[in-house]
Automatic annotation (TrEMBL):
InterPro entries xref list: D-isomer_2-hydroxyacid_DH, D-isomer_2_OHA_DH_cat_dom, D-isomer_DH_CS, D-isomer_DH_CS1, D-isomer_DH_NAD-bd, NAD(P)-bd_dom_sf
PANTHER family with a match to the protein in the record: 2-HYDROXYACID DEHYDROGENASE-RELATED (PTHR10996), GLYOXYLATE_HYDROXYPYRUVATE REDUCTASE B (PTHR10996:SF283)
Family under the similarity heading: Belongs to the D-isomer specific 2-hydroxyacid dehydrogenase family.
Domain of life of the organism encoding this protein: Bacteria
One GO CC term, this protein: cytosol
The keyword Oxidoreductase is assigned to this record: yes
Location of the D-isomer specific 2-hydroxyacid dehydrogenase NAD-binding domain: 113-289
The protein, known as: D-glycerate dehydrogenase
Domain D-isomer specific 2-hydroxyacid dehydrogenase catalytic, chain residue ranges per copy: 33-320
Molecular-function GO term, any one: glyoxylate reductase (NADPH) activity
Keywords: NAD, Oxidoreductase
């Protein structure tokens, strides 16, 4: 009987994923989320041919030579790969994979939760209830904004952006979008294209980011960008914290220029910006867009599918292309 391929699972994974890894591979299963040094040392000790990696394992050109010579694939159980140098890994002869499709629905669902929570002052309502709800509120009190019928601007009209647009249509929202290139009409599905971010922002009641952390996009939502948004608009981010200048966002929220924000990602993770947490008009979640049983299982299983394919001499199912 042929020996099973040796792999390192360098992060905590759901039970179903761990069970499959133990069944199908000779697996060294981390009991915690390994950092870079731990993962490199464990991979060498185990002679790993594949690594299911995690966000704390930051593999760049300096770390790659320390990996075992028989390593063939680094599988990211997430859509993002900005924690590693993909070009350096590929040049080192490794296949790099991610899981771009399985997160789409849950991320779009959470984006809608943030939109609704920001519009309807959900954070404030929750705090009132948890504090004991000691007074009645009358007609002028605690008024939110009705999301139905508003104009939603989507920045980044990939799979997730299009899924958010589909959900927004259920609220009779008008959908505008900005993308590097205009989509064909079938993918637009009635959404209106704006040729630049600057052209999009003043036209929208709600702006939602769905861009990857691509080069050149860092800090794109700065003071000038927030100033271009409509007074009383809503800002939502489920993409990358690096896309937003948080000083500028805090100022726009404190001044009342923005009505509210809904955020799942931050420049500092974990922890976030305490100034945002202190604002009543910010609805916050701790980078959990993919955190459902179904999606986290699917992410891990697809990463293992990629490892199995490559170690069997087949093409990766979802390779990261440069």
């Amino acid at each position: 009987m042929a020996a099973k391929p040796r792999i390192l699972v360098a992060r905590r994974v759901p039970d179903a994923v761990a069970a499959r890894a133990a069944r199908d591979f000779d697996t060294l299963l981390a009991g915690h989320d390994m950092n870079t040094a731990e993962a490199v040392a464990a991979a060498r000790e185990h002679g790993a041919q594949g690594i299911l990696t995690g966000p704390k394992v930051r593999l760049g050109a300096a770390e790659l030579p320390g990996l075992p010579p028989g390593l063939r694939i680094i599988a990211n159980p997430s859509a993002g790969t900005d924690h590693m140098d993909v070009a350096a890994a590929v040049a080192h002869g490794l296949v790099v994979t991610n899981t771009p499709d399985v997160l789409t629905d849950c991320t779009a669902d959470l984006a809608m939760l943030l939109i609704l929570g920001a519009c309807r002052r959900a954070s404030e309502y929750d705090r009132i209830m948890r504090a004991g709800w000691t007074e009645r509120y009358g007609m002028p009190d605690l008024l939110g904004l009705r999301p139905s019928g508003r104009t939603l601007g989507i920045v980044g009209m990939g799979r997730i952006g299009r899924a958010v647009a589909q959900r927004a249509r259920g609220f009779d929202m008008r959908v505008l979008y900005h993308n590097r290139t205009r989509l064909p009409p079938a993918l637009e599905a009635g959404a209106e294209y704006a040729g630049s971010l600057g052209a999009l922002l003043p036209r929208c009641d709600i702006v939602s980011l769905h861009l990857p952390g691509a080069a050149g996009a860092e800090g794109m939502m700065d003071r000038a960008a927030f100033a271009r948004m409509k007074p009383g608009a809503i800002f939502v981010n489920t993409a990358r914290g690096s896309l937003v200048e948080e000083d500028a966002l805090v100022e726009a929220l404190q001044s009342g220029h923005l009505f509210a924000a809904g955020l799942d990602v931050y420049r500092k993770e974990p922890g976030g910006d305490p100034r945002l947490a202190a604002l009543p008009n910010v609805f916050l979640t701790p980078h959990v867009a993919s955190a459902t049983v179904e999606t986290r299982n699917a992410m891990g299983m697809l990463a293992l599918d990629n490892i199995a394919a490559v170690l069997a001499g087949r093409p990766a199912l979802t390779p990261v292309t440069l």
